User: What shape does this take?
Amino acid sequence: MTTTTLAVLVPLLPFLGAAAGLLLGRTAPGFVRPLAVLPSVTALALAVLVAVRQGGDQAVDAATELTPTGSVPIELALHIDGFAALVAVLVGVVASCVQIYSTGYLRDDPRYPSYAALVSLFTSAMLLVVYSGDLMLLLVGWEIMGICSYFLVGHYWETPEARAASIKAFLVTKLGDIPFLIGLFALATDAGSFRITKVLGAVASGSLDHPTLIALLLLAGVAGKSAQFPLHTWLPDAMAGPTPVSALIHAATMVAAGVYFIARLLPVFAASAAALVVLAVMAAVTMAGSGLAALAQDDIKRVLAYSTIGQLGYMTGALAVGDRGAAVFHLLAHGAFKALLFLAAGVIIHAAGTNSLAAMSRMKDLRARVPDAYWTMTVALLALAAIPPFSGFFSKEAVLGVAEHAATGHAENVPSSAGWIVLVAGLVTALLTAAYAMRLWLLAFRGHGAEAPDHGRQPLAMNAVLWVLAVPSLAFGLTTGLLPDWFDGHDLTPTLTTSMLGTGIALVGGIVTYGAWRHTTAMAARVPLGAVAAHPEGDAALVEAEAIASHAPAYGDVASAPDPSDPGRLLLGPLHRHAAVGFHLDAVYAALFVRPVQAGATLVRFLDREVVDTYVRGAGELPRLLGAAVRRAQTGNVQTYVSALLAGTVVLAVAALLVATGA
Amino acid sequence: MHLAYPAVLSALLFCTGLYGVLARRNAILVLMSVELMLNAVNLNLVAFDVWLSKTAQDTLHSGQALTLFTIAIAAAEIGIGLAIVLAVYRNRGTSDIDKLRDTAETDDGPESAAPAQAEKAEATA
Assistant: This one.
């Protein structure tokens, strides 16, 4: 088979698997698991094959036009360069891991067939975005991901949190998608084509008339999809979905799509210095804010969610300084270790029976219960905190390196202010990242108190996947020397200055957190806290759904817990209260958008009920009154009727006489 | 005989009948009044037929023929009418027209028609 055929099969197989899964889910339950796992694994194998054949050389381009569509043609086009080939492999790896993990995680879930089919559809949409060579085709995958995330985040729709979160995720990402769509049209109008190669050609020849406008419009969609400030608020709430879905959304699909999109069209953004500065500021605010917020979260998955937002900030930061190699490098490394973090968190939530770090810090020997999750999560957290020699170190140093490169004015077309913004924010975030990674590890695995409840052995499918993902988290840094061949050719090896600075800052963050924890942990025994859902027989999904539903009643809030022994509380001081609720951004949005809309709805309701309906009711009231008057004549007495008849006859006769006589 | 005599007699009969129909309360008397009106018409028919046949050369005496029709129909009508009155009297214990007001509209509107109908159905059963 040619590379093109293989590449077409990569998104197609999960799509067919999803269609078959949705159709056969009820009638043939035996096929559901193979139909969920096999297409993803096959797609992964094919993606690897495509990557090997492509080999980072000349991009594979293929296009066919289904039908003429007017002025700007829409084609079914593939454009596979080194970025696409490697990102597709990442998507395949994470999707396969998530599907295998889900067979254990949602073992007894009655909605598993539709869940697995939607995960497959999600994977297929992301692969379409990755391979697509046409912006409209990319948009199709982009929107399918939006709707799939809505369904999957709302998987536990019995809980109000999940229902609210799914609607929020959908609305916020759609809010970004509208400017995105307009931006795509503007871009295609300027470039005369939706084909990515032709758009890039037009940019290179300088025929783009409104680069800043287009870049900012596209940026809105990217901010929504990739959860960048100010449209990131859907992501922490999306933790109300099942853990494997969180892993899928956060590691390889959905949020990665936005970063990948900018990486594909980076010349469009680089054509406008203003757009790069906006991107850099967005990345900086996102990074620093999410780091602070992550330090104050109580839900283990919400910590990871804010960490995802921060790591995406690194990627957009790298793009803001014009280096997509570093951005995609961090995307790949982050995809592996973030998927691992989420899947391990799922195991921990199942074993602990709670998603609250405050409750976990009051449990003895949780790490002995789940040794696989303990070791792999330690690896992933070290990678997240960018400690050498784990993968996160190399990718994050690549980002900091290019930021420093741009700050000192060595990058073409990139304002050095963007470089400085990204560099400073990146270093601050490195400190925060190490701090919250340390806090999560200490609270989850170094608790004191009662024994953790026994939920039995974790399924093999879940533990095995953790070790599979631990390999790239450990060793992906080794590929640093090879990756530039696949990417633009920029050197990605860490520079000495930023490495020393970044690692030193990360170590400081970790040590300070450890000190704070030593100081506060004694208080944990004095303040009993925690609600644990014990279902020794239930699958992990059931435990998680109950943990999510019981967090707000037990601790007063979905995000934070009133736990004085939390080192984050000591470190953040008065900032903790604001960081726990994401710096009141939700309240601001509620005041700015939700309440005006609700007030408008109330007004429309009033106008409809009291004004429009008055006319309608009035139109009915008049005939009713007339009818009531006429009804009085119906006395039931026949003689009255005959009298009226006689009177009428007499009147008519007199009238006829008068007319006849001409009077 | 001059035409005025039968005409005036007929008019008096008709008015008496009309008064009876409008004012009497007993259903049988109302029926009898209807008969008076019919017969006033019959008298007119015969009288005018005679008056017309005086001037015309040959006539079919259609007025008199029509009178026979009217008598036959009146006989049938009074038979059915009396049967209805009898049936009403047996059911209600009265033949007073003022009290037979089942078709009256009430102010309650059409919603209350259902119980009233049920009452009526019970009464006729």
About this structure: Residues 62-92 of chain B form the longest helix (31 residues). Chain B has one domain: 4-101. The CA atoms of residues 45 and 63 of chain B lie 5 Å apart. The two ends of chain B are 56 Å apart (CA to CA).
